[in-house]
Structures are given as structure tokens and as C-alpha cells.
Amino acid sequence: MSGVDDERWMRVAVELAWLCPPSQTAYSVGAVIVGADGTEVSHGYSREGGDPVVHAEESALGKLAAGDPRLSGATIYSTLEPCSERKSRPCTCTQLIIASGIRRVVIAWREPSLFVADGQGVELLTQAGLDVTEMPSFAAQAAAPNRHLKTT
Q1: Residue 59 CB partners (closer than 8 Å, separation 6+)
Q2: Active-site annotation holds for 57
Q3: Neighbours of 110 (CB within 10 A)
Q4: What are the two backbone dihedrals, phi and then psi, of residue 55, each rounded to the nearest 5 degrees?
């Protein structure tokens, strides 16, 4: 995908992050999965559907059948680095993305150390052979729905 497409889809992910019910114990994150043909395959956001512990990437992936053939050429856009540690579920978002067959991940913002001391999502995805792109120009927009948290 081109940089223009990356910007377009990251804007969609940021819009989704604003739909998250605020939480004092979790980030507000938006995620969108885009197929190789450039069309949206699925999207999700933190705490979507009233589940207080669902993560954005998990929500987007959960709307698709396991082995959905569109995932092998897809890109997932997330406003925050996918989690590499998780207490509320058996699998992290990093593990879910790797298992899904998605080959490219685009993030706006690395996970601050508020809830996890040393997030390793980017490193684990890269080690698994996925292409990871960071878009720091979107970091402030991705952080904005989280202003209620002390993320410094």
C-alpha cells in the first residue's frame, strides 16, 4: 500500500479509537484490517460491544472466520502497538495477529509503560517475519482519546 493509503486507514483507526468507552485501566485503541485489494475487511475498537476487556485488534479479528483467506494479504492498522502482555485473555494481540496470517502491521504509537513496563509488540511481530511500519506523525492523534490517562 502507498503512504497515502496508510494515512487514510490510520485516520479510520483514529476515528474508531474515539468510539471506545473511556477506562482508567486500558487504552482507547482503534484498529482496521485492510485487504490486499485496498478494501476494509474488518474493524474494531477497545471495549467494543460492551466487553470491558476486548482489545481493538482482537475485536477486528474476532469478526472474521479463522483462516479467512483475505488475511494472508492484509494489513492491520492500529492506533497503538499491539499488546505483548495480557492478563485478561490467554492470547495477546501480538499472538492473535501472528496466528491470523496477516503479514503487515501499521501502528501510530508505541505502548507507553503505564500498564506494561516494556511492551514488545513491534519486536515480536518483526521477529515473526511481519512487516511493521510506524507512523509517528499520527502518535498525537492516537494518544488524544487517552487524555484521561497519565501516559507520560
Answers
A1: 31, 44, 45, 46, 48, 49, 51
A2: yes
A3: 14
A4: -95, 160
15-30 pLDDT per residue, tens: 999 999 988 888 999 9
Single out the catalytic residue among 7, 15, 57, 111.
57
User: Over the stretch 52-89, which tens digit does the pLDDT of each residue have?
Assistant: 999 999 999 999 998 899 999 999 999 999 999 888 88
Is residue 81 within 8 Å of residue 108, measured between CB atoms? no
As a whole number of angstroms, the distance between CA 20 and CA 105 comes to 21
| Residues 10/110/149/118 CA torsion (nearest 10 deg) | 150
Q: pTM score, two decimals? A: 0.93
Let me know: does 75 contact 33? Beta carbons within 8 Å: yes
Q: Has residue 111 got a pLDDT over 90? A: no
For the chain, domain boundaries: 3-146
Record the cell numbers describing residue 124, joined without a space: 515480536
Which grid coordinates are listed for 41? 475487511
Give the cell for residue 147. Answer: 487524555
User: Is it true that domain 3-146 has CATH number 3.90.1150.10?
Assistant: no
